[in-house]
Amino acid sequence: MGKVLLLAGALWGIGALMKTPHGPRWVMIGLLYLAVLFAHVALPVDHPLVVATGGSLPAWLSFGAMVGVIYLYREGLKKLRARATPDPQPEEDDAFRPAELERYARHIVLREIGGPGQRRLKDARVLVIGAGGLGSPALMYLAAAGVGTIGVIDDDTVDLSNLQRQIIHTDDRLDMPKVFSAEAQMRALNPHVTIRPYHRRLTEEEAPALFADYDLILDGTDNFDTRFMVNRVAVAAGIPLIAAAITQWEGQISLYDPAQGAPCYQCIFPSAPAPELAPSCAEAGVVGALPGVVGAMMAMEAIKDITGAGQSLRGRMLLYDALYGENRQVNLKRREGCPVCGAN
Question: Measured between alpha carbons, how far is residue 84 from residues 79, 88, 240 in Å?
């Protein structure tokens, strides 16, 4: 009997190392017990397997009965305790925990945000497309601000060349999928928010169902095909889209929302420019702090849009020149012939 108990202990230990839940571990031990019973019933008493398992059939049946009694006793005791002790009142969804009140105190004292605005942030669901240069600071500040549900989708892994500007990732997470690296950093920053990582490339077939779970989309991707696709799906769903782009020393950002009278992305950029006119960061280079500035602007616009504070960039584009420290704004209008949101 001792050998069987040692084997059961080994199964439990292996399950613990593999972080298997208790239920499946008990199932494995139960199957082992049933196998021992079957061996004692089906095989002769002098069979090597019966001898190896030790004891006898009555002994094993008594052992099982004893374990069953102990289990029933513990379950009965739990039910008696539950009846004797009233259930604690569940915390209302609308209530902030004391730790959250202290964490968001600097928001709550702002008259433009206050308690109601922080409540709206907690209830908000924001999807960030891309966990790279722009996504990194945007995700960090969304988590720090207390946005209740943050989704992030990206199919890439952390590379050493990313760390010059993608501050959400670290050297010890090289080769890790970016969405899981970002998830770890956001959870470490704020355990009160829900993170939904999607380690895959966003496709037009999947995008409508994914976008339906969110109130606001942030696009930090670096290619026009994905930007156009994200814009099409966001417009069809009536979801506001904050999109930004960077190259070398310059960045731009706007909030595209045809449902509120603002243009969509393709109103402003009808077609992709020639490749030589819009090289990637790998080809043209980018100063490390630039995505930090523009990505933080994306988070800022998201916070304003969710809380209703101030004036958003809906219908305006902000152009930032880091090399000369200059900002410019351009008013944007919808284009009637736009194939995505135009009159036709």
Answer: 9, 12, 51
